């Protein structure tokens, strides 16, 4: 790692660290003033969820998603996210944004509206995909929110690193291989992020109303369910998991193998899903009856990504043009921050991801994949348990010993980032995380349970109080006229873009799907 780090710490090279790109995607449920899931359609004042660049929806019609553009400055990304929240609140009427990953009070599955995007083929495909998710996993899953963190190294870094290794192969292939190395290391060590930032140790009882085998314990009067040492329950069996997907072995040792594993899961029918219609007589309950309808149905804590062209599949984009950035998907929405995360967390993420990139990352086998999965499950369900043991090559070790070792290794990265940016903010963020390892009571998951106990409140009441607090924060904040006008333009432009897309549609939905899935058949196989 230290040799790799040298590429970034010279006086003429520190700009490479200042040019790290990041983008944030943050999800929040719209709720009524009483704390129930909003049944209203996507607010007209927020434009088209299909074509708006900053504000869209994810699974449920009520699950808003806010997207910041790629930026090299943390402060700029967070300021943009704050502006988006402020603008959204100006259009919500009396509705609120729910401030945690696990949802508000829920009714039955039929009361959870599936996201809709209009009448175009791409819009219909997005909606049918979500209907398929509802049939396969239950619509209640479509109310879980998270934060996705997109991370990329500047092109100048890749050119220098490639040259330092005597320019092996093609630059595009070198970049993809290095990003896959980052992903393998991330999967080895991402349990640390779950421990440090997990903020969902409890759920409202309504979330599991029709499920008995959840393994959670009643909290207080039973309106909440929890695990005493749980950290991020949405990343465990309560999230998008299925027995069918558990047998899916995704390989990150090479891009062709990754692409082929997912391609195969998308193209081969799966008997568990044959009972749902995939277009017979025009009835689409799902896009297809394969294990995965599309790539996004594989819910990994991290994904290799490439911006796609119109109508292009993600796997085709990766095959043609390589990995462009990675997307971290295991972050909870924190109720203790108005944005759901803060600069301290972002700085640690940058430090951690840079370590995963620079540290040696050997290929992994199925045995190591089993270890990764077991460690993630252990920290999700028992992360703050005293003496918790994790699996590693050669046996087991306590989570705290391993976490302290990782944080010590991260000091070199944090120091380099502080040197590049000036100041000590990265080192301070690292020390804040080290304190959480020393004292589990400092973690967000412990704080959630502590405040529930001290205030005598179930999870719903605690989250509702924070949701109202942050609603007041954003409603009292105003946008400068130029920023407000820009959001207004985005709203109108997105509505016009949707109308134009719908007006020029010239093929049937069946042909659109045939064209889309035909791309998988032409992908090269390893």
Automatic annotation (TrEMBL):
Protein name according to UniProt: Glutamate--cysteine ligase
Catalytic activities: L-cysteine + L-glutamate + ATP = gamma-L-glutamyl-L-cysteine + ADP + phosphate + H(+)
Gene: gshA
Domain Glutamate--cysteine ligase: 7-379
NCBIfam families hit by this protein: glu_cys_ligase (TIGR01434)
SUPFAM superfamilies (alphabetical): Glutamine synthetase/guanido kinase (SSF55931)
Keyword Nucleotide-binding included in the entry's annotation: yes
Lineage of the organism: Bacteria, Pseudomonadati, Pseudomonadota, Gammaproteobacteria, Cellvibrionales
Keyword Repressor listed: no
EC supergroup of this enzyme: ligase
Enzyme Commission number(s): 6.3.2.2
Gene3D superfamilies: 3.30.590.20
The entry's keywords: ATP-binding, Glutathione biosynthesis, Ligase, Nucleotide-binding
InterPro entries: Gln_synth/guanido_kin_cat_dom (IPR014746), Glu_cys_ligase (IPR007370), Glut_cys_ligase (IPR006334)
Pfam families: Glu_cys_ligase
GO MF annotations in UniProt: ATP binding; glutamate-cysteine ligase activity; metal ion binding
């Amino acid at each position: 790692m230290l040799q790799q780090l040298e590429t970034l710490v010279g006086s003429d090279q520190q700009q490479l660290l200042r040019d790290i790109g990041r983008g944030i995607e943050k999800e929040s449920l719209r709720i009524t003033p009483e704390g129930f899931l909003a049944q209203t359609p996507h607010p007209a004042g927020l434009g088209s969820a299909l074509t708006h660049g900053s504000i869209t929806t994810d699974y449920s019609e009520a699950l808003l998603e806010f997207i910041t553009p790629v930026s090299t400055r943390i402060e700029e990304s967070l300021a943009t996210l704050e502006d988006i929240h402020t603008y959204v609140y100006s259009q919500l009427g009396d509705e609120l944004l729910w401030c945690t990953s696990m949802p508000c009070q829920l009714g039955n599955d039929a009361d959870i509206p599936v996201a809709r995007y209009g009448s175009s083929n791409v819009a219909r495909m997005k909606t049918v995909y979500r209907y398929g998710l509802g049939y396969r996993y239950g619509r209640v899953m479509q109310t879980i929110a998270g934060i996705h963190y997109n991370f990329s190294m500047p092109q100048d870094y890749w050119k220098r690193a490639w040259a330092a290794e005597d320019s092996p192969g093609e630059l595009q292939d070198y970049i993809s291989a290095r990003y896959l190395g980052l992903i393998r290391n991330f999967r080895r060590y991402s349990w640390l992020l779950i421990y440090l930032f997990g903020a969902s140790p409890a759920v409202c009882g309504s979330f599991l109303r029709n499920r008995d085998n959840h393994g959670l314990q009643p909290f207080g009067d039973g309106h909440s369910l929890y695990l005493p040492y749980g950290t991020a329950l949405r990343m465990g069996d309560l999230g998008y998991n299925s027995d069918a997907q558990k047998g899916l072995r995704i390989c990150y040792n090479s891009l062709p193998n990754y692409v082929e594993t997912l391609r195969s899961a998308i193209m081969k029918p799966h008997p568990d899903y044959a009972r749902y219609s995939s277009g017979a007589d025009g009835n689409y309950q799902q896009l297809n009856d394969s294990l995965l309808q599309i790539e996004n149905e594989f819910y990994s804590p991290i994904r290799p990504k490439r911006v796609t062209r119109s109508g292009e599949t993600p796997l085709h984009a990766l095959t043609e043009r390589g990995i462009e950035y990675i997307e971290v998907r295991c972050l909870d929405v924190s109720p203790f921050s108005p944005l759901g995360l803060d600069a301290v967390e972002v700085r640690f993420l940058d430090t951690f991801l840079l370590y995963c990139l620079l540290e040696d990352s050997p290929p992994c086998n199925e045995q190591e994949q089993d270890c990764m999965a077991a460690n993630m499950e252990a920290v999700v369900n028992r992360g703050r348990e005293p003496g918790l043991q994790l699996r590693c090559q050669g046996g087991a070790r306590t989570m705290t010993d391993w976490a302290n070792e990782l944080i010590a290794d991260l000091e070199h990265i944090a120091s380099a980032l502080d040197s590049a940016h000036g100041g000590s903010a990265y080192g301070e963020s690292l020390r804040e995380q080290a304190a959480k390892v020393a004292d589990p009571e400092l973690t967000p998951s412990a704080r959630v349970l502590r405040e529930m106990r001290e205030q005598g409140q179930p999870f719903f009441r605690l989250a509702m109080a924070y949701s109202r607090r942050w609603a007041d924060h954003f409603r009292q904040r105003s946008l400068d006229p130029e920023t407000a006008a820009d959001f207004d333009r985005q709203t109108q432009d997105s509505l016009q873009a949707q109308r134009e897309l719908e007006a020029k549609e010239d093929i049937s939905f069946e042909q659109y799907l045939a064209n889309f899935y035909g791309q998988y058949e032409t992908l090269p196989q390893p």
